[in-house]
């Protein structure tokens, strides 16, 4: 049966309370009957608050608690308080560690702890999935070779003056595909380690590149119209008028010039149409390509056989897909001398697979690739496909036609449905 007064005083003051000259009147009768002669109550302080009490009584007359017992009580309760504080601090640190571990492992950003030498000490699953790199691998192995010097320079500054690193760089996925990433790195004070995070910004970067390309194409179409097409059309009409007035051999020659000028005007008109993108990212590119093929047949008389599984492709991938089909048909019209074209499109959850085959005159692929002025249409198709992280191949034999095959990934930058 504890003394309420003694306990209350220890809690109120936060100090050890000692009754060393016999018990006062406020002690309970049960204590008196049990022969208690002296009592000590020492608070256990945890983070400045009383969390427990050490309560001790003495029954032997003439041997009451004194200052020595008070010091022992203070010592024991200070040990108990420190042990309790350490346990609570450890628990909080463990919770913080667990929270950090959860954030590190499951944040939607590829994150790694990297040594000053550029070796990976720890990496979360997103980082490993993104690059296929694990512990002890070199960070630069995940960077596209053209951007490695840029990253190396920023890495040196990070450890020399603790200047945070923030770059947009091209990286290599575990599959070998290219992606754009926002690289951020910071170094904790006094550490020879840095925390590195990679955010996939391919969607934004590719959209910017595609928008820039389309803007350039529209500008070029406008310049062709104003600077070449209109003056050439005027020259055509002048030649036609001169041919009507001429006679004999001169008339024949002028009529040939009129025919050539008309063909050039028509070719420039077709080129301007090709330079403009008639579909938006909301339009299904497959249906737009089917319409393009019908229009191509109506204009050229070349039959286009289409094999399509009914899938749909929209978004940035749709724009790229339409351009590939458009440029393939444009090349056939200008160069192939074909009478039949086969167009194949297959859309899966992950990619769109396509092929364009003609029965035209064909050409030597290696010979064309070695020229400094290599076929710009073919080069443009390859660059466009690789920009999106896809694959593009061409097969051609002189006299046996040409086949183009391509694969475009359907990732975050695209939207598709079957």
**Which structural category fits the helices and strands?**
alpha+beta
Low-confidence stretches: 412-418
The largest β sheet comes out as: 5 strands, antiparallel
Number of strands: 15
Shape: rod-shaped
| Rg over CA atoms | 41 Å
Strand order of the largest sheet: 5-4-8-7-6
Mean pLDDT: 79
Instruction: Give the fraction of residues assigned to helices.
Output: 40-55%
Task: Give the helix tally.
Answer: 11
Separation of the first and last Cα atoms:
80 Å
| Elements, N to C (H/E) | HEHEEHEEHHEEEHHHEEHEEHHEEE
Proportion in β-strands: 15-25%
Write up what this structure looks like.
The chain has helices at 4-13, 29-33, 67-106, 125-131, 148-161, 202-245, 248-275, 285-300, 315-336, 365-370, 376-387; strands spanning 17-19, 38-46, 49-58, 110-115, 120-123, 165-172, 178-186, 193-200, 303-308, 312-314, 340-347, 351-358, 391-396, 402-409, 414-417. It is α+β, with helices and mostly antiparallel strands. The longest helix is centred in the middle third of the chain and has 44 residues, at 202-245. Residues 412-418 have low confidence and may be disordered. The two termini are 80 Å apart.
Considering the chains and any ligands shown, give keywords for the structure.
418 residues; alpha+beta; five-stranded antiparallel beta sheet; five-stranded mixed beta sheet; 11 helices; 15 strands; 49% helix; disordered C terminus
Quick take:
Helix 6 (202-245) runs antiparallel to helix 7, helix 8 packs parallel to helix 9 and helix 9 (315-336) runs antiparallel to helix 11 (376-387). Helices cover 49% and strands 24% of the residues.
